[in-house]
UniProtKB/TrEMBL annotation:
This is adenylate kinase. Signal peptide: none annotated. One of its GO terms (cellular component) is cytoplasm. It catalyses: AMP + ATP = 2 ADP. Residues 154-189 form the Adenylate kinase active site lid domain. Its EC number is 2.7.4.3.
Length: 239
């Protein structure tokens, strides 16, 4: 049993309140699918809070497993140090490990996985062994032209992480952070050329995955170009 003697009372009380609030919630296992800039990052924290789910981003999970030096993490580290891609089976194993944790008791949000039908089949097989399945696949549909406007207009203040948009959330002084007055930068990935390449890859990979889950009747199509509040309401209605 974990030693809780050094954990702050406020932290223990907060966690107790969270668990009490989550007790009546029904279990949900969700997959979020959408291109860069579609709004998944906005909706994930809301879903996590409302439904007491854990948020599983495979990249973050791999890094956490490596840092924690778990058996699967050590295997992943060896693979990555050789410059090789981590196998689907290894990623599934890390997901399997993660969803056993208490924070995932009510279910999970999978973001960035599965990217192929083979991965989807392996994920379903793993969940089936536990007697559960994917409940909903939220497909964030949005025209590529809207994404280009969203992404190429983004500017950030690296030291703080504050972000701006030339159209939707412009800084008070063009090119300058509102708080410090320091210069803003545009990330290398936030260009039309890089976006086009990423979108081409996304569409080729994702369509078969959406088709796969459509046959299972779990895909929900979201009009992700709408304002975030409207997308949140649409998701709530489907869940």
């Amino acid at each position: 049993m974990a030693d809780l003697s050094d954990v702050a009372a406020t932290d223990l009380f907060s966690e107790l309140l969270r668990r009490l609030k989550c007790m009546p919630k029904s279990q949900k296992r969700l997959i979020l699918v959408g291109p860069p800039g579609c709004g998944k990052g906005t909706q994930s924290p809301i879903l996590k809070e409302q439904h007491c789910l854990c948020h599983l981003a495979t990249g973050d999970m791999l890094r956490a497993a490596v840092a924690a030096q778990t058996p699967l993490g050590l295997m992943a580290k060896q693979t990555m140090e050789k410059g090789q891609l981590v196998s689907d089976d290894l990623v599934i194993g890390i997901i399997d490990e993660a969803i056993q944790k208490p924070s995932c008791k009510k279910g999970f949000i999978l973001d960035g996985f599965p990217r192929t039908v083979a991965q989807a089949e392996k994920l379903d097989a793993m969940l089936s062994k536990q007697g559960v399945k994917v409940d909903k696949v939220l497909n964030f549909e949005i025209p590529d032209s809207v994404l280009e406007e969203r992404i190429t207009g983004r500017w950030v203040h690296p030291p703080s992480g504050r972000s701006y948009h030339t159209k939707f959330a412009p800084p008070k002084v063009p090119g300058r952070d509102d708080v410090t007055g320091e210069p803003l930068i545009q990330r290398k990935d936030d260009t039309a050329e890089v976006l086009k390449s990423r979108l081409d890859g996304f569409h080729k990979q994702t369509k078969p995955v959406i088709d796969y889950y459509t046959t299972k009747g779990v895909v929900v199509r979201l009009q992700a170009e709408k304002p975030p509040q409207e997308v949140t309401v649409a998701i709530s209605k489907t869940l």
